[in-house]
Amino acid sequence: MNLQAAFNPADWSVLSGALRLKPMAQRDRQRSLSARALLDDETCIALLDQLGPVIGSPTRGITASLLAKRFSFLATGACLYAMSVCDQGLLLSLDDCVIEYGHDDGLWTSSMPLPDRAPQVYAAGEREAWRASIVEGLFAGLLAPLWQTFNRVSGISRRILWENTAVRVYSLYEKRMSKVEDPLIRLRHEADFDWLLQEAAPQLFGLDYNPLRHFRRPPTQLEEGKSIRFRRTCCFYYEATEPAEYCSTCPLLRPRKCR
């Protein structure tokens, strides 16, 4: 069984469409590097310096933040949607993943290429251990080493890189998965999200704290009757846009009286 055949057509449509999952054979060979290659400082610096002018970033640190934000979307989207909605295990690792960095006309075109093989399944009664292994591979195995390298070569705060990751996970569960109507799937993805926020151990993230819990700021009530869960840190997206554009949850937009 190959990657696509493991999912029903509706799920694959979401994974390969909005979430940009695709078989490795379809990778953008001109604009991609193996994830492990980016652990080399010189390779990482060369990529960031090449990518900066393409995305309009004025510094290496801002480039690292925005690339991390994009890769977080791709990696967590494919992995956690497959886990919580499809009940399929995509094992992401430094050796199996490539980082695409295509960016044209002001927009990212990058995808999440993965080896064309069947996802991991679990035996009866073993879903919790299976879930923990999937999450540990994604965060501690793949993202933590990359964010350490990004921090080391660019000076960008690790807190910013991890909040970039956290907000992608929040959006995935609260917006994307909330559209799933099947009540059994809803129960599963809600239980997974609660576990990620409340119970997932710090070592699953390669850290001494759970970043999904740490960056979960309470929503701010606005005068218009809306509420927004503003970030704790700024990703600096506005620094790479002209005129400046801000993320909807940017802490710089938080009402001053609430800061």
From TrEMBL:
InterPro entries linked to this entry: FhuF_C (IPR024726), IucA/IucC-like_C (IPR022770)
Pfam family, any one: FhuF_C
Gene Ontology molecular-function annotations: 2 iron, 2 sulfur cluster binding; catalytic activity
Superkingdom classification of source: Bacteria
Residue ranges annotated for the Aerobactin siderophore biosynthesis IucA/IucC-like C-terminal domain, each copy included: 66-212
Positions of the Ferric siderophore reductase C-terminal domain: 231-252
Signal peptide: none
The protein, known as: FhuF/siderophore biosynthesis protein
